[in-house]
Amino acid sequence: MSHTRYRVMEAGEARRFPPEAMARIEKILTRYPTKQAALLPVLWVAQETWGWISKEAGEEVARVLDLPPSHVDGVLTFYTMYNLRPVGKHLLQVCTSISCHLNGAESLLERCGKRLGIGLEETTADGKFTLVEVECIAGCDRAPSMMVNDQYFEPMDAGKLDALLDRLSREA
Ligand code: FES
Question: Interhelix angle for 39-50 vs 69-78, to 10°?
């Protein structure tokens, strides 16, 4: 799973993309007509590199792509898939849009919170889990749907959720 690549960084930590991330970015840039057009995938590399996108990480993306930091900020606040603050190693994203709502999403969300002892937008004290509610993640035909980092789990039910949380707790 991709979360194993994450190294969560501290707020305010000065940063430059490490060489392996720069190599990925160079490869991405070959697929786009301009550097600026590669903004979304390069932001994704930043998130995979640092676990979230701080102000400093956004500035690094702007530097690499020759963009004004304000432009990067605007894109970051538009898309919900980018984490703008530190998250746990496992980012649990439970969809509560209509199809998932009709198929028990709220009870899954509640079960997650109870099992982990956290509320929405909170992270467990050990830094392993963050719980968020998200809008449709395009898994409506297999609702209720949730994601852990960038991996889908669907259709979910209480038993599968318990098994998933048990497994992630053991791995973490
Ligand atoms: S409504 Fe939940 S994935 Fe679309």
Answer: 80
Tell me the C-alpha distance between 70 and 145, whole Å: 34
pTM: 0.75
The best mutation among 95, 133, 134, 146 to test binding of ligand 1, ranked by most ligand atoms within 8 Å of the C-beta, falls on: 95
Q: Where are the domains of the chain?
A: 2-78, 90-171
For the Cβ of 156 lying below 6 angstroms from any atom of ligand 1, the answer is no
90-128, pLDDT tens digit by residue? 999 999 999 999 999 999 999 999 999 999 999 999 999
pLDDT tens by residue, 155-172: 999 999 999 999 999 985
- Phi, psi (rounded to 5 degrees) for 119: -100, -175
Distance 109 CA to ligand 1 centre (A): 14
Which tokens is 35 given?
Answer: 């550097």
pLDDT for the residue numbered 63: 96
* Residue type for position 8: V
Question: What six digits make up the tokens of 60?
Answer: 């690094």
Region 2-78: CATH code:
1.10.10
Q: Which fold has domain 90-171?
A: Glutaredoxin (3.40.30)
Question: Is the separation of the CB atoms in 147 and 136 below 8 Å?
Answer: no
